[in-house]
Design a protein that fits this description.
Layout lengths: L11 H13 L28 H9 L5 E2 L2 H4 L9 H7 L4 E8 L20 E6 H5 L6 E2 L12 E5 L25 H6 L14 E2 L1
Antiparallel strand pairs: 1-6, 2-3, 2-5, 3-4
């Protein structure tokens, strides 16, 4: 439960006035409750006991969102199978998508003019598995950089390794098309509940 930041004696009129300030005058808005509360996560057992599957299932079904830590270790998944070395052994010439986008705060998404937007703007390029293994920065451009009217720093990161190739990979996976990052103010204005948190390596989000 989130911590309430208003007295329990607050009237409905006062409460509505605070809510109205979020839209009309965000600078004066004071949180009604803690909006940075952590997402529901399973309590860690001090003895390291394993959680019964039915309890994990019920926890996930009864939560709007659930953060599960340590699942890969519990299932004894061999994460080395997803390493660059494994990819290099399976398909040394396999294409790995590289994206270049403007550096911005982790809780915001803006276009090249600095305006809030839902669409994630990035330029697509690629390298193969061997290039990554060798630490090569040479990239094959799929499209040129768009000219920017705002001096923003560019960052590059590897993204999808498409496992749907039926020749190299037997099990096909379908990826959602397009990248989207909703604007938080628009979601709040539409009364859409939002959970914001940082997903660390190894965390599973239900």
């Amino acid at each position: 439960m989130a911590e309430v930041r208003v007295p329990l004696t607050i009237t409905s009129a006062e409460l509505m006035e605070r809510c109205r300030k979020r839209i009309d005058n965000p600078a004066e808005f004071v949180e009604i409750f803690d909006e940075k509360v952590k997402p529901p996560s399973l309590p860690e057992s001090p003895k390291g006991d394993k959680l019964p599957p039915e309890k994990l299932q019920n926890f996930c079904y009864n939560s709007t969102i659930a953060l599960i830590r340590g699942l890969t270790q519990t299932l004894k998944m061999d994460l080395s199978l997803f390493s660059t070395k494994s990819l290099l052994e399976i398909a040394p010439e396999h294409e790995v998508e590289i994206r270049s986008q403007y550096l911005m705060p982790s809780d915001q998404n803006v276009d090249h003019l600095g305006q809030p937007t839902w669409e994630c703007h990035s330029t697509r390029g690629g390298v193969n598995s061997t290039d990554i293994a060798n630490g090569s920065s040479k990239r094959r451009r799929a499209s040129g950089f768009e000219e920017s009217q705002m001096p923003m720093k560019l960052i590059k990161f590897g993204t999808n390794v498409d496992l749907s190739d039926d020749i190299k990979f037997k099990r096909k996976l379908n990826f959602l098309k397009g990248s989207w990052w909703p604007d938080i103010d628009e979601l709040l204005e539409a009364n859409i509940p939002v959970h914001r948190f940082t997903q660390k390596a190894g965390d599973v989000v239900w």
